[in-house]
Amino acid sequence: MCGIVGYIGNKNANEIVYQGIKRLEYRGYDSVGICYKKGNTLVVKKDIGKIEEVASKLNFLEEDSNLAIAHTRWGTHGKITKENAHPHLDCSKNIAIVHNGIIENFYELKEDLIKRGHKFNSETDSEVIAHLIEEYMKFYDFENSCKKAFSKLKGSFAVLAINSKEEKIVGIRKDSPLVIGVKENESFAASDIYALLPYTNEFIFLKNFDFVVLEKNLVKIENLIEGSVNRPIERIDFSLEQNSTEGFHHFMIKEIMEQGEIPFRILEKNGEKFKEYANKIKEAKKVLLVGAGSSFHACIYGYYLFSKLGIDCKPIVASEFKNFSNILDENTILIAVSQSGETADVLEAVRIAKSKNCKVYSIVNVYGSTLMRESDFYLLMNSGFEVGVAATKTFTSQLIIFYILYKILKNESFSMKHLSSQILDLLGRSRREYIEKIADMLKDKEHIFLIGRGLSYVSSLEGALKIKEISYIHAEAFAGGELKHGTLALIENNTPCIVFVDRENYEEIISNAHEVKARGGFIIGVSPFKDKVFDVWIKIPDCEEEIPILQIIPIQLLAYLLSVKRGYNPDYPRNLAKSVTVKWKK
């Protein structure tokens, strides 16, 4: 789950790959590096740290170049060190590579290369690629050496390679994203289109085993399995939001505050597609919903809604999907939910489902992503670029999409204008100031519990995830009825418990709140109704099936404020990256 960028053309490659890699920082931010061609020499600058810090310290833009590659890292193999940062060089320092993915057979490749005299400078799996190319260049030219080397790799990988003596970038894509940008006298490559949108709106989306050679005026693509292929150029008319916080302190709060417009953006992008999508769900004998992290919580919401309609459905966390493959058949629809459309576990679930002749439908944010392209039908979240690692506006988008599908399946009308006004009210200044006071109460706590029932259980799951991933407070969610089965033993005097209340489960969840209160718990109610059991009341609108959409808004704000007040950067939580595009294998 790293980000890679490459450029060759008549403009300043260093500036272009630097700006591109900044747009990919959400994919990883342990370390960063750039390699550019200066005459017949490769210059590598890399170190650990955030992109802007390292770029300033090492002066990425000190010189101009017409050919460069860059990388931002989220470590998998090897510690977070300068040596393990990309780009990696071969022994001769004439070949440089950047890599996103996992090379599963790197150990045996490395052992063989060491026996052949190669010396390694890092602990990474990626460095073997540079040395493999070097080894084959004893017998072949650069392009064919890359082809031979890439054919030896096992795992998931998107690779860009350059040679000090040639004006070209060579790449490969297998199970890790890589998109090509084209323009007159310029060629680009990157992990996703967001890195390239300021420079071009024409893209080639590569498929697995596509081998690409980029020159200033030429893009050559062949597939290492199929041979000669023709990949179309697609024009993406997309207005890129400025990759800046635009007056906000962090991307996360900016993205939280953008949520009022989400209902309209979803309808604008999908329109009549909702009815077709809903009809396919209605026709299916079985519906499985798969996602990871926040997207899985959205799947649980969809499960509750569809179950109300008598639809046979089940939510499955993506990493566990293979254990349920025996229940798949041609009458099953898989609904895959992913912000990035590149989540490795979700894509594996999709491929398992396809092998069982299931139809795959998706809910995805990134246009052109692998999930979108491998789906039989898709709906776009249309949330815009989300930089913050903690999903906010994309999670809300997922919930709204499931809500719209539910309303269509039920033949009921719905108002996006009304929903938008409710979200905007929850984001108003007085509301934010009130949530800040609650954050002051909780910022020094070690544990926070969250409970809900029915649809509100979804809010508790997502709320706990938001709090723990950016504030590092231990937060745990439970269905309200599960408290008495062990969790009450953890309640001490003033232990905070956030209770999500809705009309449907009002009496039962309030009873659970009293159980916590009786053991000394401090009760924060997120509820349309005030109750005497609450020590603090966060008021939300009285509504029905859309209630998790509104319950989560104040908790997103709370999590953000807890992170800031505890001295952390909510955009870049430790040990996490936005898009989990690799699966760890030893």
Layout: helices, strands, pairs:
Blueprint (H helix, E strand, L loop, with lengths): L2 E7 L3 H11 L7 E8 L2 E8 L2 H8 L8 E7 L14 E2 L5 E9 L2 H10 L11 H10 L5 H11 L2 E9 L5 E6 L4 E5 L2 E5 L11 E4 L4 E6 L2 E6 L3 E2 L5 E2 L15 H7 L4 H9 L2 H11 L2 E6 L2 H15 L4 E5 L14 E7 L5 H12 L3 E6 L5 H5 L2 E4 L12 H17 L6 H11 L2 H14 L4 E6 L2 H17 L2 E6 L16 E5 L5 H13 L3 E6 L8 E4 L7 H19 L21
Parallel strand pairs: 16-17, 16-18, 18-19, 19-20, 21-22, 21-23, 23-24, 24-25
Antiparallel strand pairs: 1-4, 1-10, 2-3, 2-4, 5-6, 6-7, 7-8, 8-12, 9-10, 9-11, 11-15, 12-13, 13-14
Helix pairs in contact: 3-4, 4-5, 7-13, 8-12, 9-12, 9-15, 14-17, 15-17
Name of the top-level CATH class of the largest domain? Alpha Beta
Which stretches are poorly predicted, pLDDT < 50 over at least 5 residues? 581-586
Q: Provide the β-strand percentage band.
A: 15-25%
Distance between the termini: 16 Å
Give the biggest sheet: 8 strands, antiparallel
Report the C-alpha radius of gyration, rounded.
25 Å
Sequence of strands across the biggest β-sheet: 3-2-4-1-10-9-11-15
Q: How many individual β-strands?
A: 25
Gross morphology: globular
The CATH topology of the largest domain turns out to be: Glutamine Phosphoribosylpyrophosphate, subunit 1, domain 1
